[in-house]
Design a protein that fits this description.
Helix content: over 70%
Order of helices and strands: HHHEEHH
Strand order of the largest sheet: 1-2
Number of helices: 5
Shape: elongated
Largest sheet: 2 strands, antiparallel
Distance between the termini: 94 Å
Number of domains: 1
Length: 172
């Protein structure tokens, strides 16, 4: 008797732990996107300030040099928070996978297989037969992490080039 009464309690604890792990993964995803929006906004602000200077560009302009340095710093910080947030998100998803009940298949099983680009077949409750789902090669290449990383690198390169050009003396 003791065994049967403990089993539902353990299952309830496991389900609760799984639910909390999913909530934490969702939270990490939200934080990551909020930080990305913040850094994109900062880059837009710097770009707006620099736009007028670039229309009438002159080398060794203090504002262009300082805004280029600020842009580099902001994007290095963005890269650091992006990498950190991704590490946390991956960790939270691993926690959720480890706590997912066997009968679920959301972050383990076909949920994980689908995210890795494998074809997944789901059976519908309507009886209309299984539905097949698979990411194309192009969709797999378009991961959010890759797109944001490429954006950060482009911003870093852009501000670095602008800084270098700003520091080159003009021959007049």
């Amino acid at each position: 008797m003791t065994e049967t009464t403990q089993q539902p309690e353990n299952e309830a604890v496991n389900y609760k732990g799984y639910e909390v792990a999913l909530q934490l993964a969702f939270y990490e995803g939200q934080i990551s996107w909020q930080m990305n929006v913040l850094f994109v906004g900062l880059n837009i602000g710097i770009g707006t300030i620099l736009q007028n200077k670039l229309d009438d560009f002159c080398h060794k302009d203090p504002l262009t040099i300082s805004m280029s340095i600020v842009g580099l710093i902001i994007n290095i910080l963005w890269l650091a928070t992006f990498l950190r947030n991704n590490r946390y998100y991956d960790f939270r998803m691993a926690q959720a996978r480890s706590l997912e009940p066997n009968e679920y298949s959301l972050v383990n099983g076909n949920g994980y297989d689908f995210s890795q680009g494998d074809e997944v077949e789901l059976h519908t409750s309507s009886g209309s037969g299984p539905s097949k789902h698979k990411l194309s090669k192009f969709e797999r290449a378009g991961r959010n992490k890759f797109a944001i990383m490429a954006s950060i690198i482009c911003f870093l390169i852009g501000f670095l080039i602008l800084l270098i050009i700003s520091l080159i003396p003009t021959s007049s």
